[in-house]
């Protein structure tokens, strides 16, 4: 991975869990923290090095899942705040995990998840300064779920009254 001028991501290599499919490909089996352009469930071509470590190549078959990452700001990114973020997005169809070191949550957003409400909540939470978020890997369906700029987040998606 390329590291930017701010030192992000904090590593040049990320190891991911994967299931070896036995034909020179693997299926990713976790949500990437830093790698861009891949999501859980993607089928990736791999090449072993001299030590048998598999190195990722091209995506052979995308899973149609998205990878969304958040830096949790609310309550200093505490374990409780990260867990709360995971729980609220889980209700909209995502899975994910948090990591204390970077106050991060990585979300796996499958295609059947409620993409419009997830996007609305992400944008609402950023406006409220609960988190910053980025798209690690997105699909055409995710892009199609984008609200036109300037629309407000409806109360049912965000769990608080409209202002």
Short précis:
With 163 residues, the protein is α+β, with helices and mostly antiparallel strands.
List the helices and strands and how they pair.
Elements: E1 18-20, E2 25-28, E3 43-48, E4 54-61, E5 66-72, H1 79-90, E6 95-99, E7 104-109, H2 115-127, E8 131-137, H3 140-144, H4 155-158
Antiparallel strand pairs: 1-2, 2-3, 3-4, 5-7, 5-8, 6-7
Structure description:
There is one protein chain. The protein has 4 helices and 8 strands. It has helices at residues 79-90, 115-127, 140-144, 155-158; strands at 18-20, 25-28, 43-48, 54-61, 66-72, 95-99, 104-109, 131-137. It starts with 17 loop residues before the first strand and ends in a 5-residue tail after the last helix. It has a 4-stranded antiparallel beta sheet with strand order 1-2-3-4, with no helix packed on it. The longest helix has 13 residues, at 115-127. The chain is of the alpha+beta class and 163 residues long. The radius of gyration is 17 Å and the shape is globular.
Number of helices: 4
Major β-sheet, in short?
A: 4 strands, antiparallel
* Radius of gyration, taken over Cα atoms and rounded to an integer in Å: 17 Å
Silhouette:
globular
- Biggest sheet: strands side by side, in what order? 1-2-3-4
Helical fraction:
10-25%
The ordered string of helix (H) and strand (E) elements is EEEEEHEEHEHH
Class by SSE composition: alpha+beta
Query: Total strand count, please?
Result: 8
Strand percentage lies at 25-35%
Outline the low-pLDDT stretches. 149-163
Mean pLDDT: 86
**What is the straight-line distance between the termini?**
42 Å
């Amino acid at each position: 991975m390329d590291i930017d001028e701010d030192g992000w991501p904090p590593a040049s290599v990320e190891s991911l869990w994967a299931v070896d499919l036995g034909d020179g490909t693997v299926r990713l089996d976790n949500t990437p923290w830093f790698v861009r352009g891949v999501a859980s469930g993607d089928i990736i071509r791999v090449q072993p090095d001299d030590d048998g470590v598999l190195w990722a190549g091209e995506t052979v078959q995308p899973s149609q899942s998205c990878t969304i990452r958040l830096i949790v700001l609310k309550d200093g990114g505490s374990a409780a705040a990260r867990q709360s973020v995971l729980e609220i997005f889980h209700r909209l169809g995502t899975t994910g995990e948090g990591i204390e070191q970077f106050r991060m949550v990585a979300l796996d957003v499958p295609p059947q998840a409620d993409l419009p409400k997830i996007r609305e909540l992400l944008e609402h939470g950023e406006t409220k300064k609960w988190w910053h978020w980025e798209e690690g890997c997105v699909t055409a369906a995710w892009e199609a779920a984008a609200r036109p700029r300037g629309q407000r987040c409806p109360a049912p998606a965000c769990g608080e009254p409209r202002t």
